[in-house]
Design goal:
286 residues; 3-stranded mixed β-sheet; 11 helices; 18% strand; alpha+beta
Length: 286
């Protein structure tokens, strides 16, 4: 009841539903799973917002929970709520140590299991899955980013609190300690992007503060970062086909055509996060 009171919502209110099986998620169901996850009551508004986002048609909840791909529900939190809840945006970003990150992420997974039926071997048909399917929640390090944060980029104000959901695979971490220019750092990121395959509709790039500092010194905007990554993560159509990443044989006149790992620069979401030391960043494929 404390969770429902904090939310100021009716327990029976429907937040949304999984469209194929018609499973509904109510405020009460979300609260029960948040309690089981170990959330504090003050975390519950974030869980509610994320649960509502899960049910939006563009998130495609059924495919995410049923696919053999094994994507997890990744929550990226922005705004004043990050400091209010003591969320981690720094050291050990994807790891243990912050109760809010761990339990909010766990609550979303329990909602998928208990309210939607995403039980492995039942609805959940993931071939491998990954550890993010236990809990997958991070905050953006807005205080060290030279750019507008993710939620502002998506139309909200800097004073708003927000949670953005991604259907994320495990983070692919890359290392570059020697490079000190945007081109050097981002070429390393692009090498990983190419491994995700051609024409990705969306990816998340998490740049560490050390890498961002090199980019900031050169005065690059976030849009420049996206455009460089998109251009640098290209292969020819023939190379993609030979690697088994294009299902249809390339016509002779198109073998040299360049195809990017990302469909457009705007398919690349860039956030800043992680500890202050260490030349490590990550790509989260979708």
């Amino acid at each position: 009841s404390a969770f429902v009171e904090v939310a100021g919502r009716q327990p029976s209110e429907v937040l949304g539903s999984e469209p194929v099986r018609g499973k509904t998620i109510t405020v009460e169901k979300a609260a029960v799973n948040a309690v089981m996850a170990g959330c504090r009551a003050e975390y519950f508004p974030v869980v509610l917002a994320a649960a509502e986002a899960m049910c939006q048609p563009q998130f495609n909840l059924h495919a995410i929970t049923a696919s053999t791909m094994g994507a997890a529900i990744l929550a990226v939190v922005n705004g004043p709520v990050v400091s209010q809840l003591g969320m981690n945006s720094g050291i050990n970003l994807f790891g243990q140590g912050a109760r809010a990150n761990a339990t909010i992420g766990r609550a979303l997974r329990l909602i998928a299991i208990n309210a939607v039926g995403a039980v492995p071997g039942g609805l959940d048909k993931a071939t491998l899955g990954h550890p993010g399917k236990y809990a997958y929640c991070i905050a953006e390090a807005e205080d060290v980013s030279p750019w507008e944060p993710l939620h502002v980029e998506r139309g909200l104000s800097s004073g708003d609190s927000a949670v953005t959901l991604f259907a994320g695979m495990s983070p692919w971490q890359m290392t570059n300690h020697a490079g000190n220019t945007p081109e050097a750092v981002l070429t390393t990121v692009a090498d990983v992007l190419r491994a995700t395959g051609p024409r990705q509709g969306e990816v998340l790039v998490v740049l560490s503060p050390e890498h961002v500092a090199h980019i900031e010194r050169a005065g690059w905007s976030k849009q420049q970062v996206k455009e460089y990554l998109c251009r640098k993560a290209e292969r020819t159509a023939q190379e993609w086909f030979e690697a088994g990443r294009l299902e249809v044989r390339v016509p002779p006149e198109e073998v040299g055509a360049m195809i990017g790992a990302c469909s457009t620069p705007d398919a690349i979401n860039v956030v800043v996060g992680g500890g202050p030391a260490g030349g490590f960043s990550a790509v989260v494929p979708m």
